[in-house]
Amino acid sequence: MRAVWYERQGLAQEVLQYGEMPTPVPARGEVRVRLLASAVNPADVNRRAGRLHAMDFPRIIPNSDGAGVIDAVGEGVSAARVGTRVWVYFAQRGRAFGTAAEYVCLPEELASELPAQMSAEQGACLGIPCVTAYCALFDSEPIKGRTVLVTGGAGAVGHYAIQLAKWGGARVVATVSSSAKAEHALDAGADVVIDYTQASAGDQLQQAAVDGVQRIVDVDVVANSQLVLGAAHDNAVWVSYAIGSQATAALPMASIIRKNLRLQGLYLSGLQASRRREAQQGIARWLQEVQHARHAVDSVFSLPQTGLAHQAVEAKAKVGTVVIRCDQE
After folding, report:
1. How far, in Å, CA of 276 to CA of 35, rounded?
2. What pLDDT, in 10s, does the model give residues 143-202?
3. For the chain, does the N or the C end have fewer beta carbons within 10 angstroms?
4. How many whole angstroms separate alpha carbon 177 and alpha carbon 95?
5. How many CB atoms lie within 10 A of CB 78?
6. How far does CA 206 lie from the centroid of its chain?
């Protein structure tokens, strides 16, 4: 099969290689997916660059999310799954070989059926961002009838969080950094969108929150702490799923304590598999009920252009997900 890989961490243009590798064979409990599309997430470029991640294997095929067709199954997997269109995630989590290739083998539970109305490029967008958004929103605390704040509402996780929160019956306030990103968040269904770069952002957020936000889905707890604390209702749930430019920094703990906030980190690799399966099932229900859900594809590259795709993510100018077509030279 054709694939892209790296054997040391560093700049995309210096370490990514394109060529042929043996086509994988599914082991017991696995499916093999003939990939049509692969998504490049920030975590994928961070792993390749060596930011907060070690080189866990001698050779790594990057990217964890994608979409394609199951073309073979391992022992213990029903042959009826062959021919099923699927979206996959977590391919390069605990395993060396991800989705920047023509084929990938992974545990069958990581491959979910892709609805007929969705293209492979759209399916590749789901993966880790959508599972993260679902887990950040839905647990024992209901969101129906409550106000949810989504910071970074134009990002991949934020864009799905807005849509899923509306599906769950919440009122959604989102923050963004430009007018173009504001349109993107509004298109996802946000009730109010605020440009956090404006001096009046804090006042706008407090006015929009009315009685305070009950749940926060946050892309950067350190950078957004002042905004969040100004709008958070007492006893709010504050879920942070990413690390910004400051991996370690002081937090205003007095305010967090006095408001009885529940500050929760969310890292999918650390969640129980059963929790992630709940998210996949919930996403399946959402996709069935909301057939015109938004799946934002920023740009599409061919497999040999994987390095350019990684650079596009690192440029931080994208609005949506950068996708690679695995079946194109």
Report:
1. 22
2. 999 999 999 999 999 999 999 999 999 999 999 999 999 999 999 999 999 999 999 999
3. C
4. 35
5. 9
6. 28
